[in-house]
UniProtKB/TrEMBL annotation:
<dbReference type="InterPro" id="IPR004398">
    <property type="entry name" value="RNA_MeTrfase_RsmD"/>
</dbReference>
<keyword id="KW-0489">Methyltransferase</keyword>
<dbReference type="InterPro" id="IPR002052">
    <property type="entry name" value="DNA_methylase_N6_adenine_CS"/>
</dbReference>
<dbReference type="InterPro" id="IPR029063">
    <property type="entry name" value="SAM-dependent_MTases_sf"/>
</dbReference>
<dbReference type="GO" id="GO:0031167">
    <property type="term" value="P:rRNA methylation"/>
</dbReference>
<dbReference type="GO" id="GO:0008168">
    <property type="term" value="F:methyltransferase activity"/>
</dbReference>
<protein>
    <submittedName>
        <fullName>Methylase</fullName>
    </submittedName>
</protein>
<keyword id="KW-0808">Transferase</keyword>
<dbReference type="Pfam" id="PF03602">
    <property type="entry name" value="Cons_hypoth95"/>
</dbReference>
<dbReference type="GO" id="GO:0003676">
    <property type="term" value="F:nucleic acid binding"/>
</dbReference>
Length: 183
């Protein structure tokens, strides 16, 4: 895996062996960012199930100012810290070493971009989005990007956020939510 574009483009990312994380492959990551950007002028990103940290690092590489990464797995945390170190801009990243729901409860930031790729996708994504909205953690023009297996069908609307794009890439499905136009 590598960073696709931006300031860190071409740099290699470490990944965790085994089945505790499922890193988003280069092609899917490139497609995601084509759907939502591909570049940004500042803002904050939340990667709630960070795994290797690749999505948040890619977002910062493409212009997001700051990233909060949440990961409870100790081995994945070490990989994330190595990947952050590779950027030589560690001050742009915060790693929260805890469960996603506990992390959300501790936050007061408002995010422009949120990545959700939990291990148990459908139930967790709906709960996560509902919690993020109820805690008022989204900026006005926020986008939530969900990555799931293609067999998962997420609702077209969750907590006043609507699906604006959905596309399959091999075994992965990317679903993008944003606030409805009347919000």
């Amino acid at each position: 895996m590598r960073v696709i574009a931006g300031d860190f483009g071409g740099r290699n990312l470490k990944t965790l062996g085994g089945k505790t994380t499922r890193p988003t492959g280069d092609k899917v990551r490139a497609a995601m960012f084509s759907m939502i950007g591909p570049f940004f002028d500042g803002g904050q990103v939340l990667d709630l199930y960070a795994g290797s940290g690749g999505l948040a690092i890619e977002a910062v590489s493409r212009g997001i100012s700051n990233a909060i990464l949440v990961e409870r797995d100790y081995q994945a945390q070490a990989v994330i810290l190595d990947n952050i170190k590779m950027t030589k801009e560690a001050n742009k990243f915060t790693l929260l070493k805890m469960d996603a729901h506990r992390a959300l409860q501790s936050m007061s930031e408002r995010f422009d971009l949120v990545f959700l790729d939990p291990p148990y996708a459908q139930a967790s994504i709906v709960e996560d989005i509902e919690q993020i909205v109820s805690l008022n953690l989204l900026a006005d023009q926020a986008i939530i990007v969900c990555e799931t297996d293609t067999s998962i069908d997420l609702p077209s609307e969750i907590a006043n956020l609507k699906v604006i794009k959905e596309k399959n890439y091999g075994i992965s499905k990317v679903t993008i939510y944003e606030r409805g136009s009347n919000e």
